[in-house]
Design a protein that fits this description.
With 484 residues, the protein is an alpha/beta fold. The chain has 15 helices and 16 strands. The protein has a single domain, classed as Glycosidases (TIM Barrel). A hairpin with a 5-residue loop joins β11 and β12. α3 packs parallel to α5 and α9 packs across α12. It is globular and about 60 Å long. The model has no long low-confidence stretch (mean pLDDT 96). Bound molecules: 6-O-phosphono-beta-D-glucopyranose (BG6).
Length: 484
């Protein structure tokens, strides 16, 4: 039996763009997530749907009356938040992570005054959480930004976006300073490495060197994150504000030194983003990577100081699966499989989900140990879970034993990591309420312990129903992880 710290924060996570809905209502403006189209199974690849989006794609989506854009409606959390939060309270949640849609507060991103109706909505959501002693954890930017900033200035490629974001951050810090004590600046900031539009609002037209633009946009997000951290500490002295990466724990494909080197590079590629957010400076290995990839960052005089002054308090990670790395010269012909946002080589020792994501609970323990060794700051598992198809059986129940098994194995390894001496603040199930998939916009890939009656065609009553995993997770929380 593993032991968790007494104050361990158990709970679950969602994002605004995958749940809220109320498209262009209540003062909300267009966001990048609103142009994410549903992708039928036959047309899917492993990465985010819209890696390369052009201005024409955006204009088409804005006028398209026939296409399906599921994130516009989400699971209508906007109108269900009370009963949803009540259900989370029934499960004993101590924390609920969601994001604030920037376009709900500043519909165009550059408005002078915030949208009061949007601010009031989050007041109500946070009050509802606090009523049940659930701590809200709030992500400032989770895969969306006001579309106007994309069309006007190419999103995070523009330095102007930094100030607009920091203004947004300051407004919400002031407004919610008595309600929200846990913040994250950017969801999976490293995703910018592969997904220019979803993470950075970069339009693909006229962009000469994609990798360079993405790293330039990342530089702007690093600065925005650091400035937001500083503001948060000034406005809410007792708050904790974290960075976050999607952790792609990676193993060498063999013990051949060339494979070990390829693995080192894969890990550096992933950890570059947390290195900057935690150490407040670019790591030395980045110089060679930049040279070899023709990346020249517009790094201005004050930037160094800004990064130094805005280091994060903790590191949040999402963790779904692990990967393996081979020397590029000998990797040809090796079998590949999907993973969260990235393809990976197949690991013969691991099982995969129906979406091909190879699950690896021990990898989570390794990841936590390695990250803690590297940074020596508290860690937080802010996303972990299994995407699976769920069915209501004759007894009117959803027997998601596969999900229980996945969560059980992963939670056990988090406990092992705690016993290894790693400081882990908490564990949040991703998509605790079924939501729209980030990558494919489908509904069939469900993560929740709470079922939502909605299908891939947008049909359903939106009624919520507790799955069998709900009762299981409730007793995990009740026993502080001793009864998994
Ligand atoms: C994470 C994101 O990368 O993966 C979530 O932060 C996302 O927004 C989750 O939903 C799972 O990915 P998907 O594509 O299965 O929804």
């Amino acid at each position: 039996m593993v032991k968790f710290p007494k104050e361990f924060l158990w709970g679950g996570a969602v994002s605004a763009n995958q749940t809220e809905g109320t498209f262009l209502q209540k003062g909300k403006g267009w966001s990048t997530a609103d142009i994410d189209k549903f992708i039928p199974e036959t047309e899917r690849n492993s990465g985010p749907s819209n890696n390369l989006v052009t201005r024409t794609d955006i204009e088409f989506a804005m006028d398209d009356e026939k296409g399906r854009y599921p994130k516009r409606n989400g699971i209508d959390f906007y109108h269900h938040y009370k009963s949803d939060i009540k259900m989370l309270a029934d499960a004993g949640f101590k924390m609920f992570r969601t994001s604030i849609a920037w376009s709900r507060i500043f519909p165009n991103g550059n408005d002078v005054e915030p949208n009061e109706e949007g601010l009031k909505f989050y007041d109500k959501v946070f009050d509802e959480c606090l009523k049940y002693n659930i701590q809200p954890m709030i992500t400032l930017s989770h895969f969306e930004m006001p579309l106007n900033l994309v069309l006007k200035q190419n999103g995070w490629l523009s330095r102007k976006t930094i100030d607009q974001f920091v203004h947004f951050a300051e407004v919400v810090f002031r407004r919610y300073r008595n309600k929200v004590k846990y913040w994250i600046t950017f969801n999976e900031i490293n995703v910018l490495e592969m997904s220019g539009f979803t993470s950075g609002g970069i339009v693909a037209d006229n962009v000469k060197n994609n990798i360079e633009t993405r790293y330039q946009a990342a530089h702007h997000q690093f600065l925005a994150s650091a400035l937001a951290v500083k503001k948060c500490h000034q406005i809410i002295p007792d708050a904790k504000i974290g960075g976050m990466i999607a952790r792609f724990e990676s193993y060498p494909g063999t013990c051949k030194p060339e494979d070990a080197l390829a693995n080192l590079k894969a890990n550096q590629n992933n950890l570059f983003f947390s290195d900057v957010q935690i150490r407040g400076q670019y790591p030395d290995y980045f110089a060679r990577f930049a040279k070899e990839n023709n990346i020249q960052i517009d790094f201005r005089q004050n930037d160094k100081e800004i990064l130094k002054e805005g280091v994060v308090d903790f590191l949040g990670i999402s963790y779904y699966s692990s990967m393996i790395a081979f020397d590029p010269k000998s990797s040809e012909g090796k079998k590949m499989t999907s993973g969260n946002l990235k393809l990976s080589f197949k690991n013969p020792y691991l099982k995969s989900s129906d979406w091909g994501w190879q699950y690896d609970p021990i990898g989570l323990r390794i990841a936590l140990n390695e990250l803690y060794d590297r940074y020596q700051i508290p860690l937080f598992v802010v996303e972990n879970g299994l995407g699976a198809k769920d069915y209501i059986t004759k007894d009117n129940k959803i027997h998601d034993d596969y999900r229980i098994e996945y969560l059980k194995q992963h939670i056990k390894q988090v406990g092992e990591a705690c016993e290894d001496g790693v400081k882990v603040l908490g564990y949040l199930i991703w998509g605790c309420i079924d939501l729209i998939s980030a990558g494919s916009c489908e509904m069939s890939k469900r993560y929740g312990i709470i079922y939502v009656d909605l299908d891939d065609n947008g049909k359903g009553t939106l009624n919520r129903k507790k799955k069998v995993s709900f009762d299981w997770y409730k007793q995990v929380i009740e026993s502080n992880g001793s009864n998994i």
